[in-house]
Amino acid sequence: MNAVPVRHPGRWAAGTIILVFAAIMAQSVFTNTNFRWETVGKYLLDVLVVQGIGWTLLLTVLSMVIAIVLAVLLAFMRQSDNPLFRGVSWTWVWFFRGTPVYTQLVFWGLISVLYPKIAVGVPFGPELLSFSTQDVITAFVAAVLGLGLNESAYLAEIFRAGLKS
Question: Which pLDDT does position 83 carry in this prediction?
């Protein structure tokens, strides 16, 4: 038996149309003088913009590291037989998914107003160390915390679904 693969001329036609349309759009964007590409290049490669990209990438990586570690822990806690672990995990996910990320960022940014001092010591006993919250929770640290904790709740549900499948 000589099996001949089924031909799909519609796929080739659709692919050709998409490629031609993409080429027309690219040509239109790159040759349009109203984009003023020399100005775009000047500002896009400015030192402040490049530094901002670097800070954004660092913020993203640190937030995701925190989120992944917490999410794995929360996903396993949610699958636990211990009702306390399940409850803590459920509450965490409910709270951080239910609160807008901007609200969380504002909270972490203004945490020093509510707690001017961070103290480490024996619970209900003497303080061993204390720090000014404003010195410890900088704007960058607040952003890392806010984004990392928020994302941990979403990732926890994704990881939990993966564990259940």
Answer: 97
